[in-house]
Amino acid sequence: MKAVRKFISLLICALLVVALCACGDTDYDGSGLEESVFISEEKNEAFRYEVYEDYTIITEYFGEDFRVNIPSRLGGKPVKGIGDNAIGISVLAIDIVDIPKSVVYISPSAFSGCTTTTIYTVAEGNPVYKSEDGAIYSKDGKSLLHYPSGKLEETITVSSGVETIGGYAFANNEDVVKISLPSSVTSIKEHAFDGCDKLNKLNFPEGITEIGDYACYECPALAEINLPSTLKTIGAHAFDYCLSVKKVTVPDSVVQIGDAAFMRCKSLSDITLSSSLERYGYQVFTGCNMLKEIKLAPGNTNFRVADGILYSFKGDELVDYPYGKGEDKIKINESVKSIRNYAFYKDTTQSDVELADYIVEVDFSKVEKIGAYAFANRDAIGAVSLPSTLKEISATAFNECKKIVAYRIKDCANYISVDDVLYTADKKTLVAYPCGSSQIAYSIPEGTENVASYAFSNAENLTSVSFPATLKTIGDYSFYKSVMLESVELGKSIESIGKYCFANCITLETVTIPDNTITSIPDGAFTCCDGMFDFIVPNGVTEIGAEAFRETAYLVYIEMPETVKVIKDYAFYDMDNLHDITIPSSVTEFGKEIVSIYDESNPDKVVLYVSADSPAEDYAKTNNIPYEIL
Length: 630
What we know:
mainly beta, nine-stranded mixed β-sheet, 2 helices, disordered N terminus
């Protein structure tokens, strides 16, 4: 394990150094953090930190001081780095943070969450950073990296000469109403203004070429977005949850719009895309409930718009359908061969808005491919009539469409409908079961070898499924949220079950899997299966995946065979009634917190039964888990 962790640490450190070098002066002004060998993770009364051969990186502050003085040495090494969310994770209302001259790397998110901090200081002689008026800048002053969110300023004017607004620079500033950027700014990094709740005025001066991922995420008061003619890229989720924005014109210079860039801009009703646009991400306007049409500047050779719908330039792919069109019957153009991922996706995250579902019927014309989540969450669709031209359909194409009662298809070379259930043409793979069906029992026919991913997800009426002796595989999330399913009995032909395949089957009581069939209980396979009282892991299983039984509240007994070698992160975590578990001596590799770690006096504590001098005993000792020797 130490060798594995050492290798991983080296790899992470190498990647960090590469990233820093790639960023150059823009983010960290030539950080002096070099590759080094990981030694250990340690903590004192205030800090958790990682010790490397040449330096220490702080990963968490849990002290009780309102003024955090970052030490220059920890673990016998100079402190050179402050890691992701290391100070922001504190629950204290921190006022001041002092940075020593030894620190040459500060993660952009290091202080994310420090909403009460009024001053950052940087010691004289620091080769990478400096502080002015309580903010942290790169040494040359060209990058504003961390601005104290607790200064209670309604108006902030960034100094002339600043070229880069760093990642998280103003994040979670709850008081600022207006930020003025100088004409020198060319780059706005990730999460720069994330969570500025009252911000309603932010200028984007000419010269800016990039707006990073989540740059203005959750700025609900921001009503105007005037983008400069120099802009080339808009990052993923850049303006997500900007609830007040009504109109956006994307300048012709923009070549890339990231995933969910304007997601949940629920007031947005007018959008014009650029003539130079090359890459258009997924879910760009998902949740823009007022958007009835997408406009496109003339001259674009990658996309075209017809009737407010965005298509590929050739018209053979339907790229995005604006939610606000409000049509109940959709007729796909005959030129369309592919429906892109998320094209008709309905947002369900805006809890304050009850969205009506319009689409009840779709005429797919000559479509050959339906992408991932293409019609997800469309609750009004009652039956799906698929075209004979269909060659490929994603497992999640109709995810969470809970009223579908039938999948129908005729004369198709690739798929067939059997009693309203979709199969591949050879009937070896069950592709999709209509989750809105009123049936309480279903028998998968003999000859079926595979249950595809998501095939029975959200089948909320099914209490019983009979599995054929021929079944070999069950895909990821295949029975996810089939909340009435009571039992599962698999045959001797089964070879594998997928990740989270029975997760949230809250009434599932019994699971029978023959010995020497599957080799893994995969990640999340039985999480939140509250009906279970006991579970016998079949002989031949070598790995218990991450979260495999997490939050299975009433499971009191688990039996594992001597074939098990690996138990991954949180495999038996947060299981209220599992008070003891026997770990076979064969287990040599353990993940993080395989069980919930409680105080010794806690009545819900878990006791591990282990063999003497086994890796399981070492794991229990290291993690302060109560144990007894078998």
